[in-house]
Write a structure and sequence with these properties.
Distance between the termini: 66 Å
CATH class of the largest domain: Mainly Alpha
Strand order of the largest sheet: 1-2
Structural class: mainly alpha
Mean pLDDT: 79
Largest sheet: 2 strands, antiparallel
CATH superfamily of the largest domain: HRDC domain
Number of helices: 6
Low-confidence stretches: 13-20
Radius of gyration: 28 Å
């Protein structure tokens, strides 16, 4: 059994060394070491938080307006449109109309509120 264990250890972990007859100290080679994810800087964390806050505000707006109009939230705008809004952050009607999923009718119905949400969030 001990011989089999030694063979397995030397095959799987060739850099295993024995400190005494019974205990093994395992040292993984560099190809076996896991990398520890680096923490995000405070600036990146702040940007992530800022983006998440805007996403929540736009999602809340979508849910509120859908309830008021008795329609499904995707009628107001889809998740893909939400992602485009977050990425491009339009601040004019012209910019808003360049977002996939926002045409003249939705811009007329919801555009000003969407722009106000984005502008008020951008000023923080």
């Amino acid at each position: 059994m001990t011989v089999l264990l030694s063979v397995i250890q030397s095959t799987i972990m060739p850099e295993t060394s024995s400190t005494n007859g019974n205990d093994s100290e395992v040292q993984l080679s560099s190809e076996h070491k896991e990398t520890i994810p680096q923490r995000k800087s405070k600036k990146v964390q702040s940007a992530d938080t800022n983006l998440e806050e805007l996403k929540v505000k736009l999602t809340d707006f979508r849910a509120r307006r859908a309830k008021e109009l008795n329609v499904k939230p995707f009628y107001i705008f889809t998740n893909n449109t939400l992602e485009n809004l977050l990425q491009k952050r339009p601040v004019t009607m012209k910019d808003l109309l360049e977002i996939d999923g926002i045409g003249p009718k939705k811009a007329d119905q919801f555009g000003q509120e969407i722009i106000e949400i984005i502008q008020s969030h951008s000023s923080k």
